[in-house]
Amino acid sequence: MEFRHLGRSGMLISEISYGNWITHGSQVEEEQATACVRAALDLGITTFDTADVYAGTRAEEVLGRALAGQRRESLEIFTKAYWPTGNGRNDRGLSRKHIMESINGSLRRLQTDYVDLYQAHRYDYATPLEETMEAFADIVHSGKAHYIGVSEWKASQIREAHALARELKIQLVSSQPQYSMLWRVIESEVVPTCEELGIGQIVWSPMAQGVLTGKYLPGQPAPAGSRATDEKSGAAMIARFMEDDVLTRVQQLKPLAEQAGLTMAQLAIAWVLQNPNVSSAIVGATRPEQLEDNVKAAGVKLDADLLKAIDEALDPIVERDPAKTESPLQRP
């Protein structure tokens, strides 16, 4: 495993991080989920990303139990708040009330006294940013989190939050956006802003919900049991990539991966790690052997000719519009 600094912070995180968005507590049984966490640890992954909303808070519980007994100082545990975690009017958003209640709930479920990174899961238009950042500052100053980050925020929002964080003497060090060969909406605005401010990207869905593994073929039904066939596994999110023109072009990556001595999944993960502003790529797994394949992308350098060939194959279907980075205008 290779390690990178998270932005310009002093904290090192594994290039491949383990996320449990749609696996723990919903898609797979706990025994299997625990086996995946143990495999991640054995393979050198030290960075684990979750959120209070995943599987209705159950994902944090499963991760907490799976990591129990590990040396806490050797791990980097990340979680997030924003999406609803209950039926109450204040069980959502980034108000001081919800943030303070959310961090306490997350720490209890994760069985830890602190998280290394606490993230705003989306931007909350209903709460003044000053209120949100002051709550985050109190959490950091109380020792319940070391750093703060955001997820799916626009460049202008990140810049404003970073300025407030400096005033409050806390470190906003990360952005967690979707990023892959097919989804490059952060490249024109978010990445340059973050490079300037010393913020690193922890990217999710580097394999475009599995499309970049090449297992989905144009003109053919999705394989049984795959994410595209399971609503609990994010079928709605993968739908945007399930068009025949996209799948046809993705198949053109197979010979490129073979020439590089990589699997399609490894090529996809290695590709996002070529961006120097990316600190880590989040992968999930339902089986330990998936992680064994994925971690081989760490430390891989793709040459300029290969990167050019990837661009030529995918260019007509790549999404680059920065407006696609957006949060709900109203709390869900």
UniProtKB/TrEMBL annotation:
One of its GO terms (cellular component) is cytosol. PANTHER family: HYPERKINETIC, ISOFORM M (PTHR43150), L-GLYCERALDEHYDE 3-PHOSPHATE REDUCTASE (PTHR43150:SF4). Belongs to the shaker potassium channel beta subunit family. InterPro entries: K_chnl_volt-dep_bsu_KCNAB-rel (IPR005399), NAD(P)_OxRdtase_dom_sf (IPR036812), NADP_OxRdtase_dom (IPR023210). Residues 15-314 form the NADP-dependent oxidoreductase domain. Keywords: NADP, Oxidoreductase. One of its GO terms (molecular function) is oxidoreductase activity. One of its GO terms (biological process) is methylglyoxal catabolic process. It comes from the Bacteria. Signal peptide: none annotated. CDD domains: Aldo_ket_red_shaker-like. This is Aldo/keto reductase.
